[in-house]
């Protein structure tokens, strides 16, 4: 072959190489399109699970195939695998599996997240209703507790003799569920199985599964707040799948629950301990400050800082604190005092929840009390009336005259016209 | 202006640039016009591709047992063009082994290792060992099930080498078992020691080649006979263009392979679960199968004998040639060795599949006849 011919060969092959590079560029650009999904990787040990479940529960497999787990080859047995003798072990089609993968299983890969979650109030949610709501549960019947409180708070999962899960304790998707292996919590509460989406957990609708209703009306407060309104208008612009999802950097449309309570800020890392930025405890009768509340308030200020200046945020929290303090001094503390006085005077028994007023009181602080707009009216009409019936004259010690009642009425009206209830309950 | 710049450079770097031009005028024997004889440049090209793609991969790779697999996954699935760079690195590695073996076969059957080029055969053998070590250490870095267990088997084989085995395996593993130390060592070997060794050996290989000149192909004497000016053609630009064509074709081929056969991830390494089938890379099949044929110690010792024979072949061949002049015994040895190697690869690759036995026999018959035809052609 002469020199010219060789040159021609080089030129032709170079063109081919160029075409190859263009193909690479095309594949790369296609791959980066957000709607293009990476292929699910089914590893050897999950092949037989897939084969059967694609027939029996195709949607579960399809959800998994849409997950990030699938693209990484993290499949059925990576989470469901159990060893003989494990408290949650169950023999299923010649394999030993656990029906419920617990935070302990998730921690094999997500150690940090589980550690943070374990330190949070969420992890203690089932335990806390054991202390608080059990009377209501017993009084109303277990079915109400199972279908009510435990749905969100979680329960204690139990096993039947044949290894299957006790039907009264499973299914349960409560966030503080006490699992068979002793671990607390349920990651799928927010990252629904079998997609385990991060984007889903970042949406307020996810939290609204539980943080709703008269006893914990956070999502109602949020929905009616400026934050919630903007979210409703701009929910399509949230860039929810972004890896770090820092407000002001990866998105700026609106804040969700996760934005302020969990996500990374300019100065704070992402956390699964939802209490790290909450300075006041709203669940007791008289709301208190959490331990290290200054630190926690400061943490929250860092989250607010993505959109608001420091003076604005400080003033906002002082307004919110004053509403709580006002509620405490006008309603919560006096009501607690009335209950103590009734008990002392022998008007009610030392047994809990056997007197009607104990239920009224419970509804007041646990229900209405968490919604100060209503509490003023209820305190006046329901609670004082009930207390007066049991111990005539007792209300006079707390609401001395018509003037005081008027004051209460004014307070009610002021609270009502303030509009945003967000700072109080949310 | 350009003169000024030239003068400036010449003053700072007082080097006779003309000598560089002169060195490019290396006379190349006429038989090198045939593409088949240009296999020596191929591994050099591939080595350069390996260096560039390898550097790109080290930007993301983390040599730690907890993070290695994840970083490879990141490269393959998330890093921009990572899948392609990894594919190129992997495929040029595979082709490197093929190219080196073909180059060796060419050198062997054209007797290009004979006096005075014995030393260059030795350097070439060292390069072969270097490349296999590259392959082994690189494979172990992926840290998936197959690569982890290949490392386990590989270091166990090393451990059974008489006298030095235990020490060598312990040194490779950085302890009695595979651990974080092993990965660090494999990494240092793969991106530090071996590249330096390879560059030095390649430089010495080329240096010796230039000192001796390209050997006249035996059997191609007709083409290479006649006057000096007709027997040779210049390296620059004629031969360089041939090499360039091969180089461009290679990068095209590798890029296509990376697209059509992308590299997979496999399951992450799990020291607790031994996979059902442990298999090394295909180029280790002959060794792997060979060891299965005998008891472990016998296998290792006979392997060492074979490798030593390969290293010492120029001198062994000279001794045979003195004893039986003109019988071309080396050709038969070469055919037998190549056949054995191919058979072992096929048997290991298709082990247990009876249907392929006929294929193996067919391929063997084809190769034998091809070898004889080649020999006949070279003789003519």
Question: What are the SSEs and their pairings?
Answer:
The complex is a heterodimer of chains A (426) and B (380).
Chain A: H1 3-32, H2 47-56, H3 58-65, H4 68-71, H5 76-80, E1 89-92, E2 95-98, H6 103-106, H7 111-118, H8 125-132, H9 134-140, H10 142-147, H11 149-153, H12 198-201, H13 204-207, H14 218-224, H15 226-234, H16 257-261, E3 280-281, E4 288-289, H17 293-304, H18 310-344, H19 356-367, H20 372-390, H21 402-417, H22 422-425
Helix pairs in contact in A: 2-3, 14-15, 18-20, 19-20, 20-21
Chain B: H1 2-12, H2 17-24, E1 27-29, H3 41-58, H4 68-77, H5 82-109, H6 118-141, H7 145-159, H8 165-173, H9 180-212, H10 221-224, H11 228-231, E2 232-234, H12 235-260, H13 285-293, H14 296-323, H15 329-349, H16 357-379
Antiparallel strand pairs in B: 1-2
Structural account:
The complex is a heterodimer of chains A (426) and B (380). Chain A is mostly helical and 426 residues long. Helix content of chain A is 52%, strand content 3%. A two-stranded antiparallel sheet of chain A has the order 1-2. Chain B has 380 residues and is mainly α. In chain B, helix 3 (41-58) packs antiparallel against helix 5, helix 5 crosses helix 12 (235-260) and helix 6 runs antiparallel to helix 14 (296-323). Chain B is globular, with a radius of gyration of 23 Å. Chain B starts with a helix and ends with a helix. The mean pLDDT of chain B is 83. Chains A and B meet through helix 1 of A and helix 12 of B.
Helix content of chain B: over 70%
Strand order, sheet with most strands of chain A: 1-2
Tell me the total number of β-strands of chain B.
Answer: 2
The coarse silhouette of chain B is globular
List the main descriptive attributes of the protein structure presented here.
heterodimer; A: 426 residues; mainly alpha; two-stranded antiparallel ribbon; two-stranded antiparallel sheet; 22 helices; 4 strands; 3% strand; flat; disordered C terminus; B: 380 residues; 16 helices; 2 strands; globular
